[in-house]
Amino acid sequence: MNPANEKIIPVRWGLFSGLLILLALFFGNAPEAAAKTTPARQNQNLKQQTTESNPASESTSGQMSGKTSAQPLVAAPQAALATRSLMHKDERCSVMVNYPQVGNSKIDAELDYWAGKTVSTFVAGAASLSPKGVTRFSMLVDYEFSESSDNFLSIVFRINTETGGPHPDPGMVAFTYDLSDGRKLDLQDLFSNSYGLLDFISAYAYENLLDKLGPEHENSIKQGTGGDPVNFSLFALRPDGLVFYFPPYQVAAYELGEQQVTIGLDKLERFKPRSGVWNNKSAAGYSLRSGLESELNHRQARLGLPGNRPQ
Predict the structure, then answer these.
(1) Which segment of 128-142, 216-230, 274-288 scores lowest on mean pLDDT?
(2) Which of 65, 68, 203, 214 has its CA 20 to 30 A from that of 267?
(3) Coil, strand, or helix at residue 138?
């Protein structure tokens, strides 16, 4: 996969949120040569304003700060070595971005760069769109991830922004990696025979969501599960198959929240799953690292970020 050509999920976010994630993804998925050099320079700049510490220590600075926890804050898959957090607070906005380090230098550099660019893009947007002291924007990014085998994992970021509207603007970004070489994988990279794969997933998701949400949502479901590959760019590996994510507005109204469709590996056998992607781990081995529980709530309080609202 060429990272420069990565497609963006067409969620109907507010203008600010959509632009933020579009820019963050574009810069966070620079061509490989840039990905090898730019993240190091960016982190050098961040470290001039930050300190690296374990979660027990606290930063009271009003500027950007970064932390790396020596251990995951909750039980996490084997690949997780640490959770990093970037934080920023000023008169216009409060930001926290949590993301993992997985022990592969190429992937970790890309995640460092993506997180830093996400923060700086939001801060710049808040400075231009929010009059000083009038509207305070906020963004909270957290992640969860799962493994299908020892060398393949998915990371799903949930991006919650507050920009003065009636409710938070939800956003999602998903990455799937091969840990052996650091490659980011598209859906078709997981199968030896991808002919008809998208049509199958589209039909399966349509029927699943129609049954779950009811015929009154048929039009929006049909649009959000159509054959455009972008509709299925939010996916994660599981030991027993794949899970696809549909953020609010993609297939149903905001108040119905995020929707998920899981497709078992047995239903995907005709597309010849690539060797090593799935290694028949038991379903009990499926692990999602989500939230940061009490530590995240503590950091939110220190930053003045609003608490999570029901979706």
Answers:
(1) 274-288
(2) 214
(3) strand
